[in-house]
Amino acid sequence: MRRMLFKSLVHGPLTEPSPVADDAALAELGAQVDRVARQRLGRTLSIRQVDAGSCNGCELEIHALNNVLYDLERFGLRFVASPRHADVLMVTGPVTMNMREALERTYHATPSPKWVIAVGDCARDGGVFSGSYACVGGVSAVLPVDLHLRGCPPSPIALLKGLLALLETVQFSGNASIDVGRTAGPSSAVSRRNKEPHRP
Ligand code: SF4
């Protein structure tokens, strides 16, 4: 016990260092997302998060967008409690059999124009849960996905960059989706995919 206490005093925390609270690059990125959202929508962007079966790792990063460091709402972007108020569905995890219908109903309850972001490697293609008897697969197996955001999990900055890439790339009548890598920049649309959902 004494050795453990000594170790905790000598060694620092094992977590990554937190970002600087007044990070200028972060502020610029957030302001850019808000500016493009206002150009495209004429107002700010509303996001509804849907956990379709994730391990909650992706949720922790999404929640971080609302903490005091990232504070997404200062840029006008906000998470809403109902899909009826949302422009964007941010979906995490592989889609489990149990969540398939709920996800479809959430999508249909969201007014058009609407965009779907598949957040994390599991949402992209099932990730580590790919092939499980309990999973349908990635989000695109159920819904038309506009943005695939890779990472396990993607960081809050990657989420912001993904939102910006989505707003800059997809038109309201959009017929293509984009795939953003873990370290990709805002305009790095690396592949185009069919908008129609794949049904196995
Ligand atoms: S991508 Fe990683 S963090 Fe996100 S749900 Fe899958 S295993 Fe969890």
Describe this entry's structure for a reader.
Mean pLDDT is 81; it is low at 172-176 and 182-200. The chain contains 6 helices and 8 strands; from the N terminus they run ααβαβββαβαββαβ. The protein has helices at residues 2-10, 24-41, 57-64, 97-109, 121-125, 156-169, and strands at residues 46-51, 78-79, 88-92, 95-96, 115-119, 135-137, 147-149, 178-180. The protein is globular and about 60 Å long. The strands form 2 sheets. Strands 2-1-3-5-7-8 form a 6-stranded parallel sheet, sandwiched between helices. Iron/sulfur cluster binds at residues 54-55, 57-58, 92-93, 120-122, 127-128, 152-153.
Task: Please tag this protein with its features.
single chain, 200 residues, alpha/beta, six-stranded parallel β-sheet, two-stranded antiparallel sheet, 6 helices, 8 strands, globular, binds iron/sulfur cluster
Helix and strand topology:
Elements: H1 2-10, H2 24-41, E1 46-51, H3 57-64, E2 78-79, E3 88-92, E4 95-96, H4 97-109, E5 115-119, H5 121-125, E6 135-137, E7 147-149, H6 156-169, E8 178-180
Parallel strand pairs: 1-2, 1-3, 3-5, 5-7, 7-8
Antiparallel strand pairs: 4-6
Helix pairs in contact: 2-6
The structure holds iron/sulfur cluster.
